[in-house]
Design a protein that fits this description.
The chain has 303 residues and is mostly beta strands. 2% of the residues lie in helices and 47% in strands. The chain has a five-stranded mixed sheet, with no helix packed on it. Strands 1-7-6-3 form a four-stranded mixed sheet, with no helix packed on it. It is rod-shaped, with a radius of gyration of 34 Å.
Length: 303
């Protein structure tokens, strides 16, 4: 008997038939499996043809026997691997939120099963400027928006709330099976503090300064904290770093686009408090995690 030449398979992929060969003896030959187990879905015909459609992944060993017309027999053993079907995940098919400059949240799919090596291709859309496609992942920082407006307009916040990048990529395994993954990235802008008519960044005559200031952008999770960086007197002088100059009773919070301040209702406070916001959301680039600073002016004479 010549060597039993088999190849591996993959669940769900038609097995490319192989024909076993025998030499010597007296034809015709009759083939059968004498030991072990064929991969489920495959059969060995009496004529020595192994074919079918693999249905179960695993490693399989079997012995084939050939019998000639005089009932003389010979055997040969072999083994083969059946790989699980090629599958993909696509967590960004609906949307994945990423911050400007983020370098850690570019993965939009994963592969399991199939047979290596895998070959990837861009199937649709475009890779964001300055980034590269590596498998099912974008590498490099998500790009910063380009504006032609004056610098002071850009600092005040661009007039759009996000950038959208759509693309799809395919993977093909060693058996020629191809799967495609879609990705939709929404890029949010960094946190930005606003002084508006209803949230003027000033508060007087009350220790409960609700909606004292507003903010926009940032990660959709809205996991934001407020940092006090400096406290000055009412004239903006005699400043001290950090929270040392604050009243003994003081709290500040940021939620839902509003910054609220509460201070000691029993003692007056006149001062200018400089704050910034910290975004603790996912996929926020370190360089954009802290907002620009804003001065809050508080005038509370006490009860």
């Amino acid at each position: 008997m010549a060597a039993l030449s088999v190849h591996n398979g993959e669940v769900g992929v038609g097995y490319l038939a192989v024909s076993f060969q025998a030499t010597g003896g007296s034809a015709p030959y009759t083939w059968s499996v004498s030991a072990g187990t064929l991969p489920p879905g495959l059969t060995l015909s009496p004529g020595g043809v192994l074919n079918g459609n693999n249905t179960t992944a695993g490693k399989f060993n079997f012995t084939a026997q050939v019998k000639d017309s005089t009932a003389a027999t010979a055997t040969g053993s072999t083994n083969m691997t059946v790989f699980p079907p090629l599958t993909v995940s696509q967590p960004c098919a609906q949307v994945c939120y990423v911050g400007m400059g983020c370098t850690t949240c570019g993965r939009f799919g994963a592969v399991s099963g199939g047979a290596a090596p895998y070959h990837y291709n861009l199937a649709g859309g475009a890779v964001p400027s300055g980034m590269t496609l590596n498998g099912f992942a974008l590498q490099g920082p998500f790009p910063l928006p380009t504006f032609t407006a004056p610098v002071d307009v850009i600092v005040a916040g661009p007039p759009i709330t996000r950038l959208i990048y759509n693309l799809s990529a395919s993977v093909t395994d060693d058996f020629g099976v191809t799967k495609t993954v879609a990705a939709n990235f929404w890029e949010f802008f960094p946190l930005h503090i606003l002084c508006t008519q209803t949230s003027p960044c000033t508060c007087s005559g009350t220790p409960a300064c609700t909606a004292m200031a507003a903010y926009e952008f940032g990660a959709p999770s809205d996991n934001v904290t407020v940092q006090v960086t400096q406290v000055c007197d009412a004239n903006g002088a005699n400043c001290v770093a950090g929270t040392a100059g604050l009243p003994a009773v003081w709290s500040v919070s940021a939620k839902g686009g509003l910054i609220n301040v509460s201070l000691d209702s029993n003692n007056g406070f006149f001062g200018q408090v400089t704050i910034d916001l910290v975004d603790h959301g996912a996929c926020v680039a370190p360089g954009f995690a802290v907002s620009t600073q804003q001065v809050l002016t508080i005038s509370w004479p006490g009860p």
